[in-house]
Write a structure and sequence with these properties.
- There is one protein chain.
- With 695 residues, this protein is α+β, with helices and mostly antiparallel strands.
- It has two domains: 6-283, Distorted Sandwich (Beta-galactosidase, Chain A, domain 5); 348-601.
- Helices cover 34% and strands 23% of the residues.
- The strands form eight sheets. The chain has a ten-stranded mixed sheet with strand order 1-7-8-9-10-20-16-13-12-18. Strands 6-5-11-19-17 form a five-stranded antiparallel sheet. It has a three-stranded antiparallel sheet with strand order 2-3-4, covered by helices on one side.
- α14 (592-605) crosses α16 (634-650).
- It is globular, with a radius of gyration of 26 Å.
- The N and C termini lie far apart (75 Å).
- Bound molecules: 2-acetamido-2-deoxy-beta-D-glucopyranose (10 copies).
- InterPro entries: Glutaminase_GtaA (IPR052743), GtaA_central (IPR032514), GtaA_N (IPR033433).
Length: 695
Amino acid sequence: MKATSLITMLASLASVMAESTFTPIKPPSQPLAVRSPYLSTWQAAGSGGGNDGYLTGQWTTFWNDRILGWQGLIRVDGTAYNWMGAMGDSPTAATQTSYEYTATRSIYTMTVDEAVELTITFLSPITPDDWKRQSLVFSYLNVSIVSIDGKPHDVQLYADISAEWISGDDSSIAEWEYGKTVDDVVYHQIYRQTQEAWSEISDQTEFGYWYWASTSQNGHSYQNGEDVVVRGQFIDNGVLANTQDTHYRAINDDWPVFAHAFDLGAVTDTPVSRLWSIGLCQDEPIQFTEVSGVIPQTSYYLNYFDNQLEALSFFQNDYATALELSTALDDQLQADSVNANGQSYATLTTLGLRQAFGALQFTGTIDSPLIWLKEISSDGNMNTVDVIFPAHPAYIYTNATILKYLLEPLFINQQSGLYPNSYAMHDVGSHYPNATGYPDGNDEAMPLEESGNMLAMALIYYAVSKNVTFLESYYDLLAQWTEYLIEDSLVPANQASTDDFEGALANQTNLAIKGIVGIKAQSIIANLTGRSADAQNYSDIAESYVPQWINFANDTTANPPHFELNYNNVSTWSILYNTFPDKAMSLGIVPQSVYDEQSKFYATVLHDFGLALDTRHNWSKSDWEIWGAATSNSDTRQAIIDAVAAYAADTSEWLPFGDLYETLTGDYVPGDHFANRPVQGGLLAVLVANMGITV
Ligand SMILES: *[C@@H]1O[C@H](CO)[C@@H](O)[C@H](O)[C@H]1NC(C)=O
Ligand SMILES: *[C@@H]1O[C@H](CO)[C@@H](O)[C@H](O)[C@H]1NC(C)=O
Ligand SMILES: *[C@@H]1O[C@H](CO)[C@@H](O)[C@H](O)[C@H]1NC(C)=O
Ligand SMILES: *[C@@H]1O[C@H](CO)[C@@H](O)[C@H](O)[C@H]1NC(C)=O
Ligand SMILES: *[C@@H]1O[C@H](CO)[C@@H](O)[C@H](O)[C@H]1NC(C)=O
Ligand SMILES: *[C@@H]1O[C@H](CO)[C@@H](O)[C@H](O)[C@H]1NC(C)=O
Ligand SMILES: *[C@@H]1O[C@H](CO)[C@@H](O)[C@H](O)[C@H]1NC(C)=O
Ligand SMILES: *[C@@H]1O[C@H](CO)[C@@H](O)[C@H](O)[C@H]1NC(C)=O
Ligand SMILES: *[C@@H]1O[C@H](CO)[C@@H](O)[C@H](O)[C@H]1NC(C)=O
Ligand SMILES: *[C@@H]1O[C@H](CO)[C@@H](O)[C@H](O)[C@H]1NC(C)=O
């Protein structure tokens, strides 16, 4: 290659690769359309497998890294540019200048030829108090364009999706329709020809109807068909053919894509924008085993809409309100987080809230809703108690009624006698979306863990809602689980905790205190429901366990002293995160001296990227670290938060923000790429500790 052409090439490369800013950080993966276990589309960013935070040059993916084709193009004065996606023979990429995220939005800014600027907003609304909106499994893409050189430019805008969104198997046969609603919403409806109800392949859903919609207005055109044909049509002509390819076929057979384009005419310094909606409608997304059998559960949004198109149409026309509600939540979360522990804390809570809400699905009637949660990535369990538990600060901070209806399926199943064990069940179904329970009691056994979790969460829901009726209706179950805790919490049997990747261990200090806090919770529940004698008895038992627990677990010889991982095992330790419910509700069962001792100790073993979970490994869990921070004094709290935020910012991980990682390097634990788990809702624990909740 001649030197001159090398220089030209480097110069043009440099203009394309001009650096983007990232605010507040470049997260491991950038959330694009994240509303439910199945609408979960991201742009991998971390250096280990991502694209360094740029929207072009790499396909967007499902949370597990499977490609979901999403292509954006723009023509400016007759020349096409790429602003999203990685189509072959891709036109020149627009120059990304900034990326910013909030809890509900990812916003990219790009320029084309120093002539126009694009502001590309992905809004996945979070509306905790408005379940009509929260239950819609849709997300927005808003692209706004403005001239930045003082001259008008002739602009056409384009975006398509591939059929990869509708199945985890690219050989599945796709079918599709194009249509228009009475209020001018234009849509491609795309679905598996053979609907496999309640099935998954590689975590993607195999039934229901996907919609890729926009609003019909001057200059709109559409087309579906082979990727190179449809994209080539736009690149060459700036307008689509308004035709359908009705040769329904496999997703990977000449890759059908579904496109909308707009001719915006001359764009000046007044911004012009277009809006797309992407989403999934499943009328009966969940199956739930009740006494009468396996009952399909109806989507909650169907309380408000007669059919899918009405829901779609509402969503497409609701952008202004959805943006207003989401922005209000974003601003509140940002302000509360900064006020608590600075920007590094806000960096974490904004990512955490997204994942806590991106795992949910709402069904049922307005009077009797149910909320479902997928564990995600570690396995597909439904409403896993020890996943709801770490996540629950996100729901307590936003709307505690969400926690109630997440727990409800677990209570209903066990109250109905569909679970034989005396302790609390682990989850309500081994694979989402089948909440078929465990009539044989053969769920993953975490007896102390889940019994303690259910009691602590029942009480915190009460503490925020003051709903005694709820406690009364499940009192017998709560009492039954308390009996287990009275038996097992002071000297815990050899069993797994939620951190099951560590294996089982007897006498775990952190499990023991969870159980003791659970007994104390039950004493308050007994009091609230008018059972004075029981209240006194439970309280006496819990109080009597505490000094014994300290005696078994306090490593008095260590300098500084600290609590051991398991009893009488000197020089071991773990994060004592299960004291958090005591702290959050000011129960007063855990002595302040325990908090003081642990706070001082944590500060001595903190690594650059966090506080190890325990002495068995140097890996940790971001959710439990922040729980630990929430139970620590202010200096230690800030130090832990800063370290976890450094992990989020500096990790090479590229899947949606992982909770399990190495605290020395900030990288994945080999072989365990936890991703997109709702447990990151636990990052809001400090906000909950600051709420001043009392029982
Ligand atoms: C939570 O959401 C529900 C359902 O929209 C609503 O009735 C309730 O007022 C909200 N707020 C709280 C604090 O529960
Ligand atoms: C859920 O149950 C149905 C049978 O009712 C089955 O066909 C489907 O494969 C199950 N889904 C998963 C994810 O296991
Ligand atoms: C896109 O977002 C901008 C900025 O919030 C807004 O002004 C505009 O109305 C939105 N466009 C559409 C088509 O909704
Ligand atoms: C309190 O809980 C009961 C039982 O679950 C429920 O029927 C009622 O709607 C709840 N009240 C409020 C205000 O949430
Ligand atoms: C558990 O701790 C108790 C109290 O120190 C002790 O008696 C018992 O031997 C321990 N069990 C095991 C399996 O280590
Ligand atoms: C609950 O506790 C309060 C004070 O802690 C006490 O006054 C009240 O009598 C108790 N109620 C019951 C039913 O035990
Ligand atoms: C206290 O509770 C324990 C465990 O349920 C029970 O064995 C004991 O009889 C109770 N004592 C009183 C006084 O109720
Ligand atoms: C643990 O032991 C140390 C050393 O004896 C003591 O100073 C500390 O108070 C003990 N911790 C608690 C919570 O009692
Ligand atoms: C002490 O903890 C270590 C893990 O840190 C474990 O390997 C060892 O078996 C434990 N010892 C006892 C006596 O429990
Ligand atoms: C954790 O890292 C430290 C270095 O900071 C090392 O000394 C220790 O052995 C590591 N622990 C484990 C369990 O690998």
